[in-house]
Amino acid sequence: MKRYLIIVILSLLPSLLSASARHLPVDSLVMLGTDYYRAERYMDALEILGEAMDQADQTGNELAYMRAILTIGNTYTIFDDYDQALHYYELCLRKAAALKNDSIASKVKANMLLCYAMLGKEQEAEACYRSIGTLRMGNVDQNRFYTYVNQAFLAKARKYYKGAIYFHTQAMKYAANHNMNGRYVAAEMGQIGTAYEESGDLKAAEVSEV
User: 83: how many CB neighbours lie within 10 A of its CB?
Assistant: First the structure.
């Protein structure tokens, strides 16, 4: 009987945690959702960040709203659902533009460029790249890193895979040489492998992913 009760309680725990999370302040919800995202608990992240987005909108917490929908967009890119990601990025970009928040606007546009590249939308990618202008990511290293990344995605959208590989490689080297978070290096390694694969060089793609 005791064992049965323990199993029941454990089965209810996720829903109990979710219910209690809804009573957290909106900034705490965004932090919790972001932690879930980083822990690769993507469905939990979407649930919590959706709640955060609604609460932030209702209370007028515009920064929390932008952070929530930016991470929701990022989560959809993990699922390769770039159209859905663009929907949230566009919402975030409109809010960032209204608030003249250049840092978030730069991040959103860089992510939108990724989506356009992955969807093969060359004209949209070109327009997005031109609109980015001077990056304001928060620090010099991120600005330089994303300059390479944006050039890589523009090349990808043009189906110029040699250029995409070159710029992703430069971004990877820059991240490694400037002690940036390892996820930046890993992400660029994955992009290099994808670019080789899409160019038809499957052997190089396998080597780059090792």
Answer: 9
Give CA separation, 190 vs 169, 197, 205, 206, 207, in Å. Answer: 11, 11, 9, 10, 11
DSSP-assigned states of every residue in 11-78 = HHHHHHHHHHHTTS-HHHHHHHHHHHHHTT-HHHHHHHHHHHHHHHHHHT-HHHHHHHHHHHHHHHHH
On whether the CB atoms of residues 158 and 189 are closer than 8 A, the answer is: no
User: What's the pLDDT tens digit per position in 36-52?
Assistant: 999 999 999 999 999 99
pLDDT at 17: 45
What residues contact residue 77 under an 8 Å CB cut-off, 6+ apart? 85, 111, 114, 115, 118
